[in-house]
Design goal:
Number of domains: 3
Strand content: 5-15%
Structural class: alpha/beta
CATH class of the largest domain: Alpha Beta
Helix content: 40-55%
Oligomer: single chain
Largest sheet: 6 strands, mixed
CATH architecture of the largest domain: 3-Layer(aba) Sandwich
Number of helices: 17
Strand order of the largest sheet: 8-10-9-11-12-13
CATH topology of the largest domain: Rossmann fold
Number of strands: 16
CATH superfamily of the largest domain: Succinyl-CoA synthetase domains
Shape: elongated
Length: 479
């Protein structure tokens, strides 16, 4: 946590008291009530302050005394969350000004993103009111905050344990999906924020906060456009030298850019310009939410590869050929092993149905700990190799009837190989619904416990290794 008072956004993520304005007096089946979600989310995250529901008619909400107006609340309010219709936001903002609220978050949508001038004018008026009163505004048109340590969550079933991954997103949907997907990869979170139209607080403000936040070690983002590109550029250059920054940009096509304007009023800009921007600043640019999550998982759990030359262990014959094609299409190289490595492997790998070239077709032999240990030792010393991508044979283990003991042996062998090799070993655990799924899930869980990332496909593994190699090349300029 940033030390008390050291950053202007500290109380946004760690408010002492919150007001939820517009929360329904009772739950309605099949009708989502985001106001109640904010309250239930804070309860689930063990929020340590006071929660004040606000509704003009309700007396009690989820066991909390409910107030007719924000100005009626008898205590100070650090954060007020608006879940009211756009037509009444100016009235609620007046109450917040009277109450001297420090931050407001508008879940409320229906402003400049609609393209209607009259709704955009309401947003402008609201911004001016808040600015003149010294209130900082999150949104409008956003899901808001998730901070386990601060006791905030915009959904009641988000994980409770705090961690070191931060995420900022123009899209509330992407923020929610990110939390679920990242949690599946056993990542935990310092702060997550969805900021919508960013009429006041912007991506640059959050990036600046995460730069200084000691609890945040790795940062992800989904953005559609930048309103203050120069400031973002300068902060990004500082942050990528010490913390990985992985960004999935929406609006990469003409149609996507048009959709971005109607979604969060963002001007997406040229994607070619964006790629150049990332290259200059060390941002790891990705093209899907899955790639973002797997890159964040890898960059926190693997040593960065010093180059793009990889050894591959995979399926025999055609499988190895296609994996090599995939690796090189993703920007990696599958080079010839050194003469010494090939000569030494020839001594220990049975000759029938195998190949000690790269890619390596060594089949069941790789399940033998002694052979894999020797392979790891040789690849460690091979100047032609920077990393190993290893297709885990969970389907074969199931077919051969080796059971859980086979999975245990595979994991033990891989982890020991990682210790020996001293270069990244990247396990690919394919989840085939028809064969070995239970073993794949078991292996994935065990690898996470051991601090090693896994990947669902060889293609994703190759893409992420390429991302990490590019980031290492950028970082090396400052070492």
């Amino acid at each position: 946590m940033v030390s008390e008072g050291s950053h202007a956004l500290e109380k946004l993520f760690f408010p002492k008291n919150i007001a939820v304005v517009g929360v329904s007096s009772s739950a309605k089946h099949f009708r989502p009530d985001q106001g109640r979600n904010y309250i239930q989310g804070s309860i689930a995250q063990n929020f340590q302050g006071r929660i004040f529901p606000v509704h003009p008619k309700a007396k009690d909400t989820l066991g909390f005394k409910t107030y007719a107006r924000v100005s009626d609340i008898p205590e100070d309010v650090d954060l007020a969350i608006f879940t009211v219709p756009a037509t009444v936001v100016l009235e609620v903002m007046k109450d917040c000004i009277e109450k001297k609220v420090k931050f407001v978050h508008l879940f409320t949508a229906g402003f400049s993103e609609t393209g209607r001038e009259d709704f955009a004018e309401i947003e402008k008026t609201m911004i001016k009111m808040a600015k003149d009163a010294g209130i900082r505004m999150l949104g409008p048109n956003c899901m808001g905050l998730y901070c386990p340590e601060g006791g905030l969550a915009f959904q009641p079933f988000f994980p409770h344990a705090p961690g070191h991954t931060a995420f900022f997103s123009q899209s509330g949907q992407m923020a929610g999906q990110f939390v679920y997907k990242a949690a599946d990869n056993k990542l935990a979170f310092s702060k997550v924020v969805s900021f919508g139209n960013s009429s006041d607080l912007s991506s640059s403000d959050f990036l600046d906060y995460f730069l200084q936040d000691e609890k945040t070690k790795c940062i992800g983002s989904y953005i559609e456009g930048l309103k203050d590109g120069r400031r973002f550029f300068e902060i990004a250059k500082k942050i990528t030298r010490i913390k990985p920054l992985v960004i999935f940009k929406g609006g990469r096509t003409e149609g996507g850019s048009r959709a971005a304007r109607s979604h969060t009023a963002a001007i997406a800009g040229s994607y070619q310009l964006w790629k150049s921007f990332c290259k200059q600043t060390g941002i790891i640019a990705v093209t899907s939410l899955n790639e973002l999550v797997y890159t964040l998982s890898a960059v926190q759990r693997l040593a960065l590869p010093t180059g793009k030359n990889i050894a591959v262990i995979g399926g025999a014959g055609g499988g190895s050929v296609t994996m090599t094609d995939v690796a090189e299409a993703e920007g990696l190289t599958v080079p010839r092993l050194s003469d010494h490595t090939i000569a030494e492997l020839t001594k220990i790998v049975p000759p029938h149905g195998t190949s000690v070239q790269n890619p390596l077709d060594i089949g069941p032999a790789m399940m033998g700990e002694q052979i894999f240990d020797k392979l790891a030792e040789l690849l460690r010393d091979d100047p032609n190799i920077d990393a190993l991508i290893f297709l885990q044979p969970v389907g074969m283990i199931k077919r051969m009837g080796w059971g859980r003991e086979g999975v245990d042996m595979m994991i033990k062998t891989t982890l020991k190989g990682q210790e020996i090799m001293k270069k990244p070993i990247i396990p690919v655990v394919e989840k085939d619904d028809n064969e070995g799924l239970d073993f794949a899930l078991m292996a994935e869980e065990r690898y996470f416990q051991a601090g090693l990332p896994t990947f669902p496909t060889f293609e994703m593994a190759a893409r992420v290794v390429n991302n990490l190699a590019d980031y290492q090349k950028y970082r090396s300029k400052f070492e």
